[in-house]
Amino acid sequence: MASDMGASYGSTLRYKSVERMKPIGKHSLLGASGEISDLQEILRYLDELILYDNMWDDGNSLGPKEVHSYLTRVMYNRRNKFNPLWNSLVLGGVKNGEKYLGTVSMIGVHFEDNHVATGFGNHLARPILRDEWKEDLSYEDGVKLLEKCMRVLLYRDRSAVNKIQIAKITEEGVSISKPYSLRTFWEFTAFRNPTVGAEGSW
Amino acid sequence: MSKLEFDVPAKGGFSFDLCKRNEMLMKKGVQPPSYRKTGTTIVGLIFQDGVILGADTRATEGPIVCDKNCEKIHYMAPNIYCCGAGTAADTEAVTDMVSSQLQLHRHHTGRESRVITALTLLKSHLFNYQGYVQAALVLGGVDVTGPHLHTIYPHGSTDTLPFATMGSGSLAAMAVFESKYHEGLTRDEGIKLVTEAICSGIFNDLGSGSNVDVCVITKGHKEYLRNHLLPNPRSYVSAKGFSFSKKTEVLLTKVTPLKEKVEIIQSGEAMEE
Protein backbone atom coordinates (compact mmCIF):
# COMPACT_ATOMS: atom_id res chain seq x y z
CA MET A 1 0.00 0.00 0.00
CA ALA A 2 1.32 3.45 -0.82
CA SER A 3 0.22 6.81 0.49
CA ASP A 4 1.60 10.30 0.48
CA MET A 5 2.12 12.20 3.70
CA GLY A 6 0.33 15.47 3.16
CA ALA A 7 -2.67 16.84 5.07
CA SER A 8 -4.31 19.99 3.79
CA TYR A 9 -6.59 22.46 5.51
CA GLY A 10 -8.71 23.71 2.64
CA SER A 11 -6.19 24.87 0.08
CA THR A 12 -3.34 25.24 2.59
CA LEU A 13 -0.88 22.38 2.89
CA ARG A 14 -0.91 22.28 6.67
CA TYR A 15 0.96 19.12 7.66
CA LYS A 16 3.56 17.41 5.56
CA SER A 17 4.42 14.37 7.67
CA VAL A 18 1.15 12.68 8.45
CA GLU A 19 1.25 8.89 8.56
CA ARG A 20 -1.99 7.83 6.98
CA MET A 21 -1.31 4.10 7.15
CA LYS A 22 -1.43 2.25 10.46
CA PRO A 23 -1.07 -1.42 11.36
CA ILE A 24 -4.15 -2.96 12.99
CA GLY A 25 -3.60 -6.02 15.14
CA LYS A 26 -1.20 -8.61 13.82
CA HIS A 27 -2.61 -9.12 10.37
CA SER A 28 -3.91 -5.92 8.85
CA LEU A 29 -3.01 -2.46 7.68
CA LEU A 30 -5.41 0.45 7.45
CA GLY A 31 -4.87 3.31 5.00
CA ALA A 32 -7.20 6.28 5.00
CA SER A 33 -7.87 9.47 3.14
CA GLY A 34 -10.29 12.24 3.99
CA GLU A 35 -10.78 13.86 7.40
CA ILE A 36 -7.77 13.19 9.63
CA SER A 37 -9.67 13.68 12.89
CA ASP A 38 -12.18 11.03 11.81
CA LEU A 39 -9.26 8.73 11.00
CA GLN A 40 -7.97 9.19 14.55
CA GLU A 41 -11.45 8.35 15.87
CA ILE A 42 -11.53 5.19 13.73
CA LEU A 43 -8.12 4.21 15.08
CA ARG A 44 -9.48 4.58 18.61
CA TYR A 45 -12.43 2.30 17.79
CA LEU A 46 -10.11 -0.28 16.22
CA ASP A 47 -7.76 -0.05 19.18
CA GLU A 48 -10.64 -0.92 21.49
CA LEU A 49 -11.69 -3.74 19.17
CA ILE A 50 -8.21 -5.28 19.11
CA LEU A 51 -7.87 -4.82 22.86
CA TYR A 52 -11.06 -6.72 23.59
CA ASP A 53 -10.00 -9.38 21.12
CA ASN A 54 -6.70 -9.80 22.94
CA MET A 55 -8.45 -9.94 26.29
CA TRP A 56 -10.26 -13.09 25.20
CA ASP A 57 -6.81 -14.67 25.08
CA ASP A 58 -8.10 -17.54 22.97
CA GLY A 59 -5.24 -17.88 20.51
CA ASN A 60 -7.38 -16.37 17.73
CA SER A 61 -6.85 -12.90 16.38
CA LEU A 62 -8.97 -10.70 14.16
CA GLY A 63 -7.93 -10.93 10.54
CA PRO A 64 -8.34 -8.36 7.77
CA LYS A 65 -11.74 -9.71 6.65
CA GLU A 66 -13.14 -9.25 10.14
CA VAL A 67 -11.70 -5.76 10.59
CA HIS A 68 -13.05 -4.79 7.18
CA SER A 69 -16.49 -6.03 8.11
CA TYR A 70 -16.36 -4.08 11.41
CA LEU A 71 -15.35 -0.91 9.61
CA THR A 72 -18.13 -1.36 7.06
CA ARG A 73 -20.73 -1.62 9.81
CA VAL A 74 -19.35 1.44 11.60
CA MET A 75 -19.27 3.58 8.44
CA TYR A 76 -22.71 2.52 7.27
CA ASN A 77 -24.23 3.03 10.69
CA ARG A 78 -22.84 6.57 10.93
CA ARG A 79 -24.11 7.33 7.41
CA ASN A 80 -27.59 6.21 8.39
CA LYS A 81 -27.53 8.61 11.32
CA PHE A 82 -26.58 11.44 8.93
CA ASN A 83 -23.29 11.87 10.76
CA PRO A 84 -20.69 10.15 8.57
CA LEU A 85 -17.03 9.62 9.29
CA TRP A 86 -15.63 11.52 6.32
CA ASN A 87 -13.05 8.97 5.18
CA SER A 88 -12.26 6.53 2.40
CA LEU A 89 -10.57 3.54 3.97
CA VAL A 90 -8.37 0.84 2.49
CA LEU A 91 -7.91 -2.31 4.52
CA GLY A 92 -5.30 -4.85 3.53
CA GLY A 93 -3.83 -7.87 5.24
CA VAL A 94 -2.72 -11.49 5.21
CA LYS A 95 -3.96 -14.18 7.57
CA ASN A 96 -3.16 -17.86 7.30
CA GLY A 97 -1.73 -17.33 3.84
CA GLU A 98 -4.86 -15.68 2.52
CA LYS A 99 -4.39 -12.20 1.08
CA TYR A 100 -7.16 -9.66 1.43
CA LEU A 101 -7.63 -6.12 0.13
CA GLY A 102 -10.83 -4.18 0.61
CA THR A 103 -12.14 -0.66 0.75
CA VAL A 104 -14.95 1.19 2.58
CA SER A 105 -16.17 4.62 1.63
CA MET A 106 -17.80 7.19 3.89
CA ILE A 107 -21.29 6.11 2.85
CA GLY A 108 -20.60 2.46 3.54
CA VAL A 109 -19.89 1.23 0.01
CA HIS A 110 -17.49 -1.65 0.46
CA PHE A 111 -15.88 -4.17 -1.82
CA GLU A 112 -12.72 -6.19 -2.23
CA ASP A 113 -10.57 -6.19 -5.29
CA ASN A 114 -7.03 -6.82 -6.43
CA HIS A 115 -6.32 -3.10 -6.52
CA VAL A 116 -8.13 -0.21 -4.86
CA ALA A 117 -7.59 3.51 -4.55
CA THR A 118 -9.13 6.51 -2.81
CA GLY A 119 -9.94 9.99 -4.03
CA PHE A 120 -8.19 11.02 -7.21
CA GLY A 121 -6.50 7.66 -7.28
CA ASN A 122 -9.78 6.20 -8.53
CA HIS A 123 -9.56 8.32 -11.69
CA LEU A 124 -5.82 8.41 -12.29
CA ALA A 125 -4.36 5.28 -10.71
CA ARG A 126 -7.02 2.60 -11.26
CA PRO A 127 -6.83 2.77 -15.09
CA ILE A 128 -3.10 2.10 -14.85
CA LEU A 129 -3.63 -0.68 -12.30
CA ARG A 130 -6.34 -2.29 -14.40
CA ASP A 131 -3.97 -2.51 -17.34
CA GLU A 132 -0.79 -3.48 -15.55
CA TRP A 133 -1.70 -5.49 -12.46
CA LYS A 134 -1.32 -9.23 -12.76
CA GLU A 135 -1.36 -12.21 -10.43
CA ASP A 136 1.90 -13.00 -8.66
CA LEU A 137 3.62 -9.66 -8.95
CA SER A 138 6.87 -9.68 -7.02
CA TYR A 139 7.33 -7.13 -4.24
CA GLU A 140 9.74 -5.00 -6.28
CA ASP A 141 7.41 -4.98 -9.31
CA GLY A 142 4.49 -4.09 -7.09
CA VAL A 143 6.37 -1.18 -5.57
CA LYS A 144 7.39 0.02 -9.05
CA LEU A 145 3.75 -0.11 -10.17
CA LEU A 146 2.56 1.80 -7.10
CA GLU A 147 5.30 4.37 -7.56
CA LYS A 148 4.22 4.84 -11.18
CA CYS A 149 0.67 5.56 -9.97
CA MET A 150 1.86 7.89 -7.22
CA ARG A 151 4.01 9.79 -9.71
CA VAL A 152 1.04 10.39 -12.04
CA LEU A 153 -0.96 11.52 -9.01
CA LEU A 154 1.84 13.84 -7.98
CA TYR A 155 1.81 15.44 -11.43
CA ARG A 156 -1.93 15.80 -11.73
CA ASP A 157 -3.48 16.14 -8.24
CA ARG A 158 -3.05 19.56 -6.74
CA SER A 159 -3.23 18.30 -3.17
CA ALA A 160 -0.42 15.76 -3.54
CA VAL A 161 3.01 16.14 -1.91
CA ASN A 162 6.22 14.44 -2.95
CA LYS A 163 6.74 12.43 0.20
CA ILE A 164 5.41 8.91 0.21
CA GLN A 165 5.54 5.78 2.28
CA ILE A 166 5.14 2.20 1.14
CA ALA A 167 3.72 -0.41 3.50
CA LYS A 168 4.23 -4.15 3.15
CA ILE A 169 1.97 -6.68 4.80
CA THR A 170 2.94 -10.33 4.74
CA GLU A 171 2.30 -13.35 6.90
CA GLU A 172 5.24 -12.27 9.06
CA GLY A 173 3.76 -8.87 9.84
CA VAL A 174 3.50 -5.27 8.78
CA SER A 175 6.36 -2.98 7.90
CA ILE A 176 5.97 0.63 6.85
CA SER A 177 8.90 2.14 5.02
CA LYS A 178 10.56 5.44 5.85
CA PRO A 179 9.26 8.41 3.89
CA TYR A 180 10.96 9.12 0.58
CA SER A 181 10.28 11.20 -2.49
CA LEU A 182 9.76 10.24 -6.11
CA ARG A 183 11.91 11.33 -8.99
CA THR A 184 9.94 13.60 -11.31
CA PHE A 185 10.72 14.86 -14.77
CA TRP A 186 9.88 18.41 -15.80
CA GLU A 187 12.42 18.96 -18.56
CA PHE A 188 10.33 18.45 -21.70
CA THR A 189 11.59 20.91 -24.31
CA ALA A 190 7.97 21.76 -25.07
CA PHE A 191 7.59 23.06 -21.50
CA ARG A 192 10.56 25.40 -21.86
CA ASN A 193 9.01 27.94 -24.16
CA PRO A 194 5.50 26.75 -24.89
CA THR A 195 4.04 29.90 -26.40
CA VAL A 196 6.83 30.70 -28.79
CA GLY A 197 4.39 30.23 -31.67
CA ALA A 198 1.14 31.21 -30.00
CA GLU A 199 1.15 34.51 -28.15
CA GLY A 200 -1.42 34.83 -25.41
CA SER A 201 -1.63 31.11 -24.75
CA TRP A 202 -0.20 29.33 -21.69
CA MET B 1 -38.38 63.26 -40.91
CA SER B 2 -36.29 60.21 -40.43
CA LYS B 3 -37.79 57.53 -38.26
CA LEU B 4 -35.76 56.07 -35.44
CA GLU B 5 -35.29 52.40 -36.16
CA PHE B 6 -34.63 50.14 -33.23
CA ASP B 7 -32.56 47.42 -34.68
CA VAL B 8 -31.57 44.30 -32.78
CA PRO B 9 -27.76 44.54 -32.38
CA ALA B 10 -26.32 42.68 -35.33
CA LYS B 11 -23.02 41.91 -33.57
CA GLY B 12 -22.60 38.47 -32.07
CA GLY B 13 -22.90 37.47 -28.46
CA PHE B 14 -25.43 35.43 -26.57
CA SER B 15 -29.00 36.72 -26.48
CA PHE B 16 -30.27 36.27 -22.93
CA ASP B 17 -33.93 36.96 -23.83
CA LEU B 18 -35.29 33.50 -23.13
CA CYS B 19 -33.45 32.92 -19.84
CA LYS B 20 -36.24 34.27 -17.65
CA ARG B 21 -38.78 32.09 -19.43
CA ASN B 22 -36.55 29.02 -18.97
CA GLU B 23 -36.14 29.76 -15.26
CA MET B 24 -39.91 30.04 -14.87
CA LEU B 25 -40.47 26.76 -16.70
CA MET B 26 -37.89 24.93 -14.57
CA LYS B 27 -39.55 26.21 -11.40
CA LYS B 28 -42.83 24.75 -12.66
CA GLY B 29 -41.11 21.36 -12.99
CA VAL B 30 -40.53 21.18 -16.74
CA GLN B 31 -37.44 19.09 -17.44
CA PRO B 32 -35.11 20.77 -19.91
CA PRO B 33 -34.21 18.51 -22.86
CA SER B 34 -30.87 16.84 -22.34
CA TYR B 35 -28.13 17.82 -24.74
CA ARG B 36 -26.45 15.40 -27.02
CA LYS B 37 -23.02 15.46 -25.46
CA THR B 38 -19.90 13.76 -26.54
CA GLY B 39 -18.92 12.64 -23.00
CA THR B 40 -15.59 11.82 -24.34
CA THR B 41 -11.97 10.96 -24.34
CA ILE B 42 -9.95 13.06 -26.80
CA VAL B 43 -6.16 13.18 -26.84
CA GLY B 44 -3.35 14.71 -28.82
CA LEU B 45 0.37 14.32 -28.78
CA ILE B 46 3.39 15.70 -30.59
CA PHE B 47 5.85 13.13 -31.91
CA GLN B 48 9.06 13.65 -33.80
CA ASP B 49 7.57 14.39 -37.22
CA GLY B 50 4.23 15.98 -36.35
CA VAL B 51 1.02 15.59 -34.40
CA ILE B 52 -1.23 12.62 -33.64
CA LEU B 53 -4.84 13.14 -32.53
CA GLY B 54 -7.08 10.45 -31.09
CA ALA B 55 -10.73 10.21 -30.03
CA ASP B 56 -13.34 7.66 -28.95
CA THR B 57 -16.65 7.38 -30.84
CA ARG B 58 -19.48 7.43 -28.29
CA ALA B 59 -22.07 10.23 -28.21
CA THR B 60 -24.43 10.33 -25.19
CA GLU B 61 -27.80 11.93 -24.54
CA GLY B 62 -27.96 11.95 -20.76
CA PRO B 63 -27.63 8.29 -19.73
CA ILE B 64 -28.28 6.86 -23.21
CA VAL B 65 -25.74 6.23 -25.93
CA CYS B 66 -27.29 7.89 -28.94
CA ASP B 67 -24.49 7.31 -31.45
CA LYS B 68 -22.14 4.35 -31.15
CA ASN B 69 -19.79 5.46 -33.89
CA CYS B 70 -19.71 9.22 -34.26
CA GLU B 71 -16.79 11.24 -35.64
CA LYS B 72 -15.11 13.50 -33.12
CA ILE B 73 -12.05 14.45 -35.15
CA HIS B 74 -13.16 17.39 -37.27
CA TYR B 75 -11.48 18.75 -40.37
CA MET B 76 -10.27 22.34 -40.14
CA ALA B 77 -7.74 22.62 -42.95
CA PRO B 78 -5.75 20.08 -44.99
CA ASN B 79 -3.00 20.34 -42.37
CA ILE B 80 -5.10 21.02 -39.24
CA TYR B 81 -7.59 18.76 -37.44
CA CYS B 82 -9.57 19.40 -34.26
CA CYS B 83 -11.04 16.94 -31.74
CA GLY B 84 -14.12 18.15 -29.89
CA ALA B 85 -15.65 17.31 -26.50
CA GLY B 86 -18.72 18.78 -24.83
CA THR B 87 -22.02 19.57 -26.50
CA ALA B 88 -21.94 17.89 -29.92
CA ALA B 89 -23.79 20.71 -31.71
CA ASP B 90 -21.37 23.28 -30.33
CA THR B 91 -18.25 21.41 -31.37
CA GLU B 92 -19.62 20.71 -34.88
CA ALA B 93 -20.81 24.24 -35.45
CA VAL B 94 -17.76 26.00 -34.12
CA THR B 95 -15.28 23.80 -36.01
CA ASP B 96 -17.29 24.07 -39.23
CA MET B 97 -17.45 27.84 -38.90
CA VAL B 98 -13.74 28.25 -38.25
CA SER B 99 -12.92 25.77 -41.01
CA SER B 100 -14.78 27.88 -43.58
CA GLN B 101 -13.19 31.06 -42.22
CA LEU B 102 -9.80 29.42 -42.66
CA GLN B 103 -10.60 28.45 -46.24
CA LEU B 104 -11.57 32.02 -47.10
CA HIS B 105 -8.37 33.19 -45.47
CA ARG B 106 -6.37 30.71 -47.55
CA HIS B 107 -7.91 32.04 -50.74
CA HIS B 108 -7.23 35.58 -49.58
CA THR B 109 -3.58 35.09 -48.63
CA GLY B 110 -2.66 32.27 -50.99
CA ARG B 111 -0.84 30.45 -48.17
CA GLU B 112 -1.28 27.33 -46.10
CA SER B 113 -3.28 27.92 -42.89
CA ARG B 114 -1.42 28.15 -39.62
CA VAL B 115 -2.55 26.42 -36.43
CA ILE B 116 -2.42 29.63 -34.40
CA THR B 117 -4.86 31.22 -36.85
CA ALA B 118 -7.40 28.50 -36.10
CA LEU B 119 -6.53 28.83 -32.41
CA THR B 120 -7.16 32.57 -32.31
CA LEU B 121 -10.40 32.32 -34.28
CA LEU B 122 -11.72 29.58 -31.99
CA LYS B 123 -10.67 31.19 -28.71
CA SER B 124 -12.08 34.60 -29.55
CA HIS B 125 -15.40 33.07 -30.60
CA LEU B 126 -15.65 30.98 -27.42
CA PHE B 127 -14.64 33.91 -25.20
CA ASN B 128 -17.28 36.11 -26.79
CA TYR B 129 -19.93 33.61 -25.70
CA GLN B 130 -18.55 33.49 -22.15
CA GLY B 131 -18.55 29.70 -21.89
CA TYR B 132 -22.10 29.18 -23.11
CA VAL B 133 -20.76 27.52 -26.27
CA GLN B 134 -19.71 24.35 -24.46
CA ALA B 135 -16.96 23.14 -26.72
CA ALA B 136 -13.68 21.81 -25.29
CA LEU B 137 -11.27 21.21 -28.15
CA VAL B 138 -7.90 19.66 -28.85
CA LEU B 139 -6.47 21.40 -31.92
CA GLY B 140 -3.46 19.99 -33.69
CA GLY B 141 -1.68 20.52 -36.98
CA VAL B 142 1.57 21.03 -38.81
CA ASP B 143 2.28 24.28 -40.63
CA VAL B 144 5.34 26.15 -41.89
CA THR B 145 6.39 26.95 -38.32
CA GLY B 146 6.29 23.31 -37.24
CA PRO B 147 3.95 20.92 -35.38
CA HIS B 148 1.56 22.49 -32.85
CA LEU B 149 -0.87 21.10 -30.29
CA HIS B 150 -3.31 23.24 -28.32
CA THR B 151 -6.22 22.70 -25.96
CA ILE B 152 -9.10 25.17 -25.94
CA TYR B 153 -11.50 25.40 -23.01
CA PRO B 154 -15.15 26.47 -23.28
CA HIS B 155 -14.47 29.87 -21.72
CA GLY B 156 -11.82 30.66 -24.30
CA SER B 157 -8.50 29.94 -22.54
CA THR B 158 -5.88 27.91 -24.35
CA ASP B 159 -2.88 25.78 -23.47
CA THR B 160 0.05 24.85 -25.67
CA LEU B 161 1.26 21.38 -24.75
CA PRO B 162 3.30 18.42 -25.99
CA PHE B 163 0.51 16.03 -24.95
CA ALA B 164 -3.06 16.84 -24.00
CA THR B 165 -6.31 15.15 -23.07
CA MET B 166 -9.85 16.54 -22.75
CA GLY B 167 -13.32 15.21 -21.98
CA SER B 168 -14.75 13.08 -19.20
CA GLY B 169 -12.17 10.36 -19.84
CA SER B 170 -9.29 12.84 -19.74
CA LEU B 171 -7.99 11.67 -16.36
CA ALA B 172 -7.82 8.03 -17.41
CA ALA B 173 -6.06 9.02 -20.65
CA MET B 174 -3.74 11.46 -18.88
CA ALA B 175 -2.69 8.72 -16.47
CA VAL B 176 -1.46 6.73 -19.48
CA PHE B 177 0.29 9.74 -21.03
CA GLU B 178 1.99 10.86 -17.82
CA SER B 179 3.42 7.40 -17.25
CA LYS B 180 4.46 6.61 -20.82
CA TYR B 181 5.15 9.80 -22.79
CA HIS B 182 8.70 10.74 -23.67
CA GLU B 183 10.19 12.98 -26.31
CA GLY B 184 11.18 11.80 -29.75
CA LEU B 185 8.40 9.23 -30.21
CA THR B 186 8.33 7.56 -33.60
CA ARG B 187 5.11 7.40 -35.61
CA ASP B 188 4.26 3.85 -34.57
CA GLU B 189 5.08 4.44 -30.92
CA GLY B 190 2.94 7.57 -31.02
CA ILE B 191 -0.05 5.81 -32.57
CA LYS B 192 0.29 3.00 -30.03
CA LEU B 193 0.41 5.45 -27.12
CA VAL B 194 -2.59 7.41 -28.40
CA THR B 195 -4.56 4.17 -28.87
CA GLU B 196 -3.66 3.04 -25.35
CA ALA B 197 -4.77 6.36 -23.89
CA ILE B 198 -8.11 6.28 -25.73
CA CYS B 199 -8.66 2.64 -24.72
CA SER B 200 -7.97 3.62 -21.11
CA GLY B 201 -10.71 6.23 -21.46
CA ILE B 202 -13.07 3.81 -23.22
CA PHE B 203 -12.76 1.10 -20.56
CA ASN B 204 -12.51 3.24 -17.44
CA ASP B 205 -14.91 6.10 -18.18
CA LEU B 206 -18.62 5.60 -18.65
CA GLY B 207 -19.00 8.58 -20.97
CA SER B 208 -16.58 7.14 -23.54
CA GLY B 209 -16.78 3.93 -25.49
CA SER B 210 -16.93 2.05 -28.76
CA ASN B 211 -14.05 2.55 -31.16
CA VAL B 212 -10.80 4.50 -31.49
CA ASP B 213 -10.24 7.10 -34.23
CA VAL B 214 -6.72 8.31 -34.94
CA CYS B 215 -5.44 11.13 -37.16
CA VAL B 216 -1.73 11.51 -37.96
CA ILE B 217 -0.61 14.87 -39.36
CA THR B 218 2.92 15.40 -40.64
CA LYS B 219 4.48 18.01 -42.89
CA GLY B 220 2.58 17.96 -46.15
CA HIS B 221 0.72 14.73 -45.38
CA LYS B 222 -2.18 13.60 -43.21
CA GLU B 223 -3.75 10.23 -42.46
CA TYR B 224 -7.23 9.97 -41.02
CA LEU B 225 -7.49 6.45 -39.58
CA ARG B 226 -11.21 6.18 -38.95
CA ASN B 227 -11.97 3.27 -36.57
CA HIS B 228 -8.31 2.43 -36.25
CA LEU B 229 -9.18 0.02 -33.46
CA LEU B 230 -12.49 -1.69 -32.70
CA PRO B 231 -12.11 -3.04 -29.16
CA ASN B 232 -15.88 -3.48 -28.65
CA PRO B 233 -17.11 -5.73 -31.42
CA ARG B 234 -20.59 -7.18 -31.40
CA SER B 235 -19.59 -10.71 -30.49
CA TYR B 236 -22.89 -12.39 -29.72
CA VAL B 237 -24.88 -12.11 -32.95
CA SER B 238 -27.66 -14.68 -33.06
CA ALA B 239 -26.78 -17.30 -35.69
CA LYS B 240 -30.40 -18.18 -36.36
CA GLY B 241 -31.13 -14.92 -38.12
CA PHE B 242 -34.65 -13.57 -38.03
CA SER B 243 -37.27 -16.06 -36.87
CA PHE B 244 -41.01 -15.67 -37.24
CA SER B 245 -43.63 -16.76 -34.71
CA LYS B 246 -44.45 -20.47 -34.61
CA LYS B 247 -47.49 -20.67 -36.91
CA THR B 248 -45.86 -18.82 -39.84
CA GLU B 249 -44.72 -20.90 -42.78
CA VAL B 250 -41.68 -19.41 -44.50
CA LEU B 251 -42.23 -19.66 -48.26
CA LEU B 252 -39.33 -17.65 -49.63
CA THR B 253 -36.20 -16.05 -48.15
CA LYS B 254 -34.57 -13.21 -50.08
CA VAL B 255 -31.85 -11.00 -48.56
CA THR B 256 -31.39 -7.55 -50.12
CA PRO B 257 -28.29 -5.68 -48.90
CA LEU B 258 -29.19 -2.13 -47.91
CA LYS B 259 -26.01 -0.63 -49.30
CA GLU B 260 -25.65 -0.99 -53.03
CA LYS B 261 -22.29 -2.07 -54.25
CA VAL B 262 -21.36 0.51 -56.83
CA GLU B 263 -18.59 -0.27 -59.26
CA ILE B 264 -16.51 2.62 -60.46
CA ILE B 265 -15.51 2.19 -64.11
CA GLN B 266 -12.51 4.25 -65.09
CA SER B 267 -13.54 5.50 -68.46
CA GLY B 268 -15.17 8.47 -70.05
CA GLU B 269 -14.17 12.06 -69.58
CA ALA B 270 -14.29 14.09 -66.41
CA MET B 271 -17.18 16.55 -66.12
CA GLU B 272 -16.65 19.80 -67.94
CA GLU B 273 -16.25 22.66 -65.47
**Largest sheet, strands/sense/barrel of chain B:** 8 strands, antiparallel
Count of helices of chain B?
A: 5
Strand order of the largest sheet of chain A: 4-5-6-7-8
* Average pLDDT taken over every residue of chain A: 93
What is the strand tally of chain B?
Answer: 13
List the secondary-structure elements of chain A in sequence, H or E.
Answer: EEEEEHHEEEHHEEH
Looking at the chains present, what oligomeric state does this protein adopt?
heterodimer
Radius of gyration of chain A: 19 Å
Helix content of chain B: 25-40%
Description:
The complex is a heterodimer of chains A (202) and B (273). With 202 residues, chain A is of the alpha+beta class. Chain A contains five helices and ten strands; from the N terminus they run βββββααβββααββα. A five-stranded antiparallel β-sheet of chain A has the order 4-5-6-7-8, covered by helices on one side. In chain A, a hairpin with a 2-residue loop joins strand 6 and strand 7 (98-104). In chain A, helix 3 (121-132) runs antiparallel to helix 4 (139-156). The longest helix of chain A has 21 residues, at 36-56. Chain A is globular and about 75 Å long. The mean pLDDT of chain A is 93. Chain B contains five helices and 13 strands. The model of chain B has no long low-confidence stretch (mean pLDDT 86). In chain B, the strands form two sheets. In chain B, strands 1, 4, 5, 6, 7, 8, 9 and 10 form an eight-stranded antiparallel β-sheet that branches. In chain B, strands 11-2-3-12-13 form a five-stranded antiparallel β-sheet, with helices on one face. In chain B, helix 2 (88-109) crosses helix 3 (115-128) and helix 4 runs antiparallel to helix 5 (187-204). Chain B is an alpha+beta fold. In chain B, a hairpin with a 3-residue loop joins strand 2 (42-46) and strand 3. Chain A binds chain B through residues 120, 123-128, 130-131, 148-149, 151-152, 155-156, 188-191, 194-195, 197-198, 200-202, and chain B through 46, 115-116, 119-120, 145-146, 148, 150, 157-162, 171-172, 174-176, 178-179, 183, 196, 200, 203-204.
